Amino acid sequence: MWTWHRASRRPRRLERASLRLQPPVCVPAHPALSVVVLPGRAGGPMQHHHSGETVVTMSRSLMATQWAARLLVVAVLCGWSGVSRAGDAGGVSGVDNSVPASVQAFSAAGRSNAAIEGRRHIAALWAESGWHLVKAGEYDRAARAFTVAKELAPGEASIFVGLGVSAHRRFRDDLALAALEHALQLDPAIGQAHALLGDVHVRHGALSAAVRHYDAAHRQDPNDVTVQERLLNARQERDVEARFDRLLSPHFVVLYQGEGTREVAHEVAERLEAVYDEIGRMHGYFPDETVTVRLYPEEQFRAATLTPAWARALFDGRMHLPNEGIRTSAETRDRMLKHEYVHAVVYRLSGGHAPAWLNEGLALFGEGGASAETGDLLARHAGDLEPLSSLHGSFLGRPQRAASVAYAESGAAVRLLIQRYGFAKVRRLLEELSSTSDMQKAFERVFHERYRDFDRRLVSSQGGRG
Ligand SMILES: [Zn+2]
After folding, report:
1. Is the pLDDT of residue 445 over 50?
2. Whole-angstrom distance between the N-terminal and C-terminal Cα of the chain?
């Protein structure tokens, strides 16, 4: 957030910078413009007037973000003077980024054609920055940018699609649904909204609704191969699920096949409700949306999930469990259910952005800690632990031995993290990840420790060499 600085300190050195600007309609009112970069100055851009020349000053770091700099200069030029009206006697005015104040200030600037055009232009720039932020995985900031754009141009359907994307990526599907439905009301031909609605419905297991939306998106743009692929997958999944019977408990939909498995389904639903409470207390998280669980005979489980023989279950947004895993000892069954349910919690809290080591480490922690066997394994492999950054992707492609070491290392990393910072901070990391997919950045924001320093600490805690 930009803060308002009175220009009491004069910069020692000024640096003129060139900035590529698309001239907005309101520029002719300002005959001359300079952009001045103040080295080292924090805070937001300011507008000065010197004998007919307009000077906008901003920090080097802000200037480095080209789109932000461009946006703010245009905003200042278009008369969006923000707090300047709040009264600065020295002829210096600033721009405040607090959304309601700036939008109000801009709206107060007038209803002339130039003002309306200017508003539209600024809305488009905010939306453009929103899309940049979506691309960079900064979904909170993207949502804020689209919110400003929406205030300035409430009739623009694509802005609501942007709001929908950023909400969906943060797992706020209630907001995503509202924004996307609104986009379709404004422009029924906006295929992107249909495609995203398909994604929202897939996540909630409403496969028929998903197929309907993907179909609409596909009809609007038959050449979009990603929509085509999503449509095919959703159709396939819908047809697969039609072959299952279903059992509903308050927080789970358990899909099973045939009379013989009904008892197993009951047992799974009952145990999962207990796990929901236990893991919910651990994470302080009790989601309302149901989790879908599919039960299969072992052979079908392998064929449906394409997992290697060492994998005992799978979570990919739904839980996939082989019946045989449930029928072994009560302890094994409960460990498996806790493990997979932690994955469901981590998936939702982190918006699907948790790296594999964090995800698996938390699941091992949730199922009741590492076994003695894991400790031995880790001790034997202490010298060749992998950096955590190479444990971000799924372990499923690894042979059994390498996978076991990766799991053991993940468990140790999460235990060390909890020991050092407490569980609440680790939970905070998951939330941080829901608004950015950049693990390094999220880690450093939450723990104030560099990601790779923690990595070294982990290796030395296991007796290996950093
Ligand atoms: Zn797992």
Report:
1. yes
2. 38
DSSP letter (8 states) at residue 22: P
Is pLDDT of 240 > 90? Answer: no
Q: Can you read off the two tokens belonging to residue 190?
A: 């906006």
Is 431 a residue whose pLDDT tops 90? Answer: yes
| Ligand 1 centroid, distance to 417 Cα (angstroms) | 18
- What's the pLDDT score for residue 37? 47
CA 10–ligand 1 middle distance (angstroms): 57
**What's the one-letter identity of residue 90?**
G
If you measure from the C-alpha of residue 248 to the centroid of ligand 1, how many angstroms do you get, rounded to a whole number?
24
Expressed in percent and rounded to 5, the helix, strand and coil fractions of the chain are 60, 10, 30
Spatial strand order of the sheet with 46-50 comes to: 15-16, 32-38, 53-59, 46-50, 92-94
pLDDT of residue 192: 92
Looking at 1.25.40.10, 1.10.490.10, 2.40.50.140, 1.20.120.1810, the CATH number of the domain 15-237 comes to: 1.25.40.10
pLDDT, mean of residues 331-353? 93
Q: For residues 406 and 357, what is the distance between their CA atoms, to the nearest angstrom?
A: 8
The better pLDDT of the pair 305, 369 is held by 305
Angle (CA) 184 222 237, round 5°? 80
pLDDT of residue 58: 59
Tell which wins on pLDDT, 74 or 318: 318
Give the pLDDT band of residue 45 (cuts 50, 70, 90): low
Same fold? 15-237, 243-344: no
By three-state DSSP, how is residue 24 classified?
Answer: coil
Q: How far is CA 455 from CA 168, 254, 259, in A?
A: 31, 39, 50
Comparing C-alpha atoms, which of 305, 312, 303, 301 is closest to residue 340? 312
Q: What is the DSSP letter of 9?
A: S
The CATH architecture of the domain made up of 243-344 is 3-Layer(aba) Sandwich (3.40)
356: pLDDT strictly greater than 90 = yes
Distance 317 CA to ligand 1 centre (A): 12
Give the H or E element holding residue 315: strand 314-315
Q: Which residues surround ligand 1, an ion (CB under 5 A)?
A: 360, 363
C-alpha 337 to ligand 1 mean position (Å): 10
Q: Which residue has the higher pLDDT, 36 or 459?
A: 459
What are the pLDDT digits (tens) for 14-33? 344 434 443 333 333 333 44
pLDDT higher at 434 or 383: 434
Contact status, residue 20 vs residue 39, Cβ threshold 8 Å: no
Nearest Cα residue to 92 out of 61, 46, 138, 127:
46
The domain limits of the chain are 15-237, 243-344, 350-466
Ligand 1 centroid from CA 316, angstroms: 10
